[in-house]
Design brief:
This protein is α+β, with helices and mostly antiparallel strands. It contains four helices and ten strands, in the order βββββββαβββααα. Keywords: Hydrolase.
């Protein structure tokens, strides 16, 4: 496989300024040296990063949640997911376990890394790690507030979830990737990574800012 970092130019950052810093993201503007010597401005959204979970039960159904998403103004059918904002000692796996409990009232005995994503690398460092969780068992209902107070858990057979993706009924990018990745892994027999597998693109810039 070709080295993804190969290339002669280093894209050195000449300067950087913070435009906005909020609870879940920071907007900064970098001056970056382009090939040939030109300096270009690049707007970068720093993000906590996130995890998502394909939780599959013994009969092959996956747990999905339907919740309101204010930026698009409607309820979406999604995989359980959440931000890597649980504090300095919380690992991505621990965050995934927490989110599965908080959003779907589930725990799992078996965890593997399904796929890693960078959501839109043209302007943000946001990255997500998706897990496959199996050996499920039910937990007591979690207390939920705000948008999550109306979360509904829906169980779909994997083939039905794939059909919902292709029909445009599941549009959340993370959920689309997770559903199709599980279907591809099942079809090809591809091995999945252990939960301690390196995560090269795990974002840290916004996290480090908020710890200062």
């Amino acid at each position: 496989m070709t080295d993804p970092t190969a290339g002669e130019h280093h894209f050195d950052v000449r300067s950087s300024r913070t435009v906005y810093q909020g609870a879940i993201l920071t907007l900064r503007v970098d001056e970056v040296e382009m090939p040939g010597g030109r300096v270009a401005h690049r707007e970068v959204v720093e993000h906590h990063g996130a995890v998502a979970i394909v939780a599959r039960d013994a009969v092959g159904r996956i747990a999905m949640v339907r919740q309101y998403r204010h930026p698009v103004g409607r309820r979406l059918l999604e995989l359980p997911a959440g931000l890597l904002d649980g504090g300095p000692d919380e690992t991505p796996l621990s965050a995934a376990q927490r989110e599965l409990a908080e959003e779907a009232d589930l725990a799992a005995d078996e965890w593997r890394v399904l796929v890693d994503l960078v959501s839109s690398p043209g302007f943000t460092d946001e990255a997500l790690r998706l897990y496959l969780a199996e050996g499920l068992h039910q937990l007591d209902p979690a207390e939920r507030t705000d948008e999550e107070a109306e979360i509904e858990v829906e169980w779909l057979l994997l083939d039905d979830a794939v059909a919902a993706v292709l029909a445009g009924e599941i549009v959340n990018a993370t959920s689309v990737a997770g559903v199709l990745a599980v279907a591809a892994a099942d079809r090809t027999g591809a091995g999945l990574r252990d939960t301690d597998a390196p995560w090269r693109d795990q974002p840290t810039a916004h996290r480090d800012r908020t710890r200062r």
